[in-house]
Amino acid sequence: MNFVIYSDFNGVYNITPSSNTTRARIATHNSEILSHKTQINWNPESVQLISQLLSTGCFDSIWHTTWNDGANICKVAEIMGLADLSQHSPANFDVQTKGYKAWTRWKADYIIDHQQHNPRPFVWIDDKAPQFWEDHVRGNTLAPSLVIQPNSHNGLELKHIIRILDWAKEHLNWTSRKSGI
User: Fold this and answer.
1) Coil, strand or helix at 59
2) pTM higher than 0.90, yes or no?
3) Is there a contact between 152 and 127 (Cβ–Cβ < 8 Å)?
């Protein structure tokens, strides 16, 4: 039984470069996508690290982002070199909603529903939603969970990947028990 990673895109991979990004010595790559008005800034090192993590075969990854609307994430993932991450949750957000809390409720609801049908240890990587919904998700799921809430200027970093690996090692017994090994 694999661990699952629910990962947002903005603030995790698509970062907002700032002086904070520069101080952390994070190199970003800017790509123009979908149209001349849409650009992403991403850290190639983070993409390479998550790619290596996912290549172990121990993790299933689900894009858990509003970029899933219209399947835009597939094109973005291909540009970044993460085309293997084609699995994605439905983006059930209400475009009329104001504020991050209401805008991100669908993410919590999806994780809870997905875990009820397929309970397994999971990692939720998101720069905004967990600050509103972490307790709700943890209170309505049974599997061990880890929440990574990166700074939106730096996105996913090496320290986060190390934390995911350490956490996964601690919970290998849970997955073995559940799969009857």
Assistant:
1) strand
2) no
3) yes
